[in-house]
Design goal:
This protein has 155 residues and is of the alpha+beta class. 21% of the residues lie in helices and 26% in strands.
Length: 155
C-alpha cells in the first residue's frame, strides 16, 4: 500500500507595495534553492549557469562519491571530484559530447527537464561504481536559466 506524507512550510510573500517581477539578487532562485539543497535529506545538487556547484546535500555527496559538501561547493561540477563513466565494460570516462548530455548540463542548455542514468566511479580503486538515476530541472530567474537542480536516486 502506498504511503503519502504532506508537509507544509512557510511561503515567501513579498511585503505590500514591493515588486514581485524582479527580486533582489539576495533572493534570486539560486540563493533560495541553495539552503534547501544543502539541508536536504535527499541526494540533490544545485549548479549555476557556469556549471559551478552552488549546493549539494550530504547524501548527494555520498551517492556521487564527492566527499564533504563544503569541499565541493564553488568548484566546477566535473572538476570537483565527480567522475562519470560510460556503460561499456571498459569503464572509460565520458567524452566531451557525452558530458554535455548528462541531465544537470542538459537542463542548463535546453531550459527543459532532463533525465538519465549516470555511472559514477567509486571513491577508491576497490569501491564499486554506482549507477544513479538523475532528474534535472532548469532554475530560472525571470526568463533566464541561471542553474539546474538535480535529484538523484540509486539504481
Amino acid at each position: 500500500m502506498a504511503h503519502v506524507e504532506l508537509s507544509l512550510s512557510d511561503v515567501f510573500v513579498p511585503a505590500a507595495g514591493t515588486s514581485t517581477e524582479q527580486e533582489s539578487d539576495s533572493l534570486d532562485s539560486l540563493a533560495r534553492w541553495s539552503s534547501t539543497v544543502f539541508h536536504a535529506d535527499e541526494p540533490c545538487l544545485l549548479i549555476d549557469a557556469g556549471t559551478r556547484v552552488v549546493a549539494v546535500s550530504a547524501t548527494g555527496c555520498e551517492l556521487l562519491c564527492l566527499g564533504d559538501p563544503e569541499d565541493v561547493t564553488g568548484l566546477p561540477l566535473l572538476e570537483g571530484g565527480l567522475r562519470l563513466l560510460d556503460f561499456t565494460a571498459n569503464r572509460c570516462e565520458l567524452t566531451e559530447p557525452e558530458i554535455d548530455k548528462i541531465p544537470p548540463l542538459l537542463a542548463l542548455s535546453s531550459g527543459r527537464l532532463a533525465r538519465g542514468l549516470l555511472r559514477v566511479q567509486g571513491a577508491s580503486a576497490d569501491a564499486p561504481d554506482s549507477t544513479v538515476d538523475a532528474i534535472s530541472t532548469p532554475v530560472f530567474t525571470g526568463a533566464t536559466v541561471v542553474g539546474s537542480l538535480t535529484f538523484f536516486s540509486p539504481v
